[in-house]
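Data availability (excerpt). The following record was deposited with the supplementary files.
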Amino acid sequence: MSNPLPEWLHDLEFPLDAKMGFVMHELSAEKVVGSIPVEGNTQPFGILHGGASAVLLETLASMGAIAHGYPDNKVAVGLDLNITHIRSATKGRVTGVATALHLGRRTAIYGVEITDDEGRRTAVGRLTCQMIERAAPGQES
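Predicted structure:
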């Protein structure tokens, strides 16, 4: 990876992502890359749970939107999540790449492609985020 992860990322906590074994590989407002293991994130039939793919998609796109809004003291909240599952994954890791489609003042939209270790597409989707002012410490609601 050519770009190191931003320093502010280390100040944030991601409990669900940690439970899923999420690893961030690259982060900028324009492109985000990360992965999760299939093992531990499966449904009863031994394949990657569709919800796990959706969490990966939303995490990647949200992190891109956070990177987009960070300089302007804004954070991202999801407005619309769309995912289409294409093929199952049963082992290894799945990797998602979120690419910015629109980076505006009020919204950020990302297209995301998820692939398995063999580079086969397992899911595609889109996340639209609303950009809102970051609450001052102690004022979160």
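Summary of structural features: The chain has two helices and six strands.
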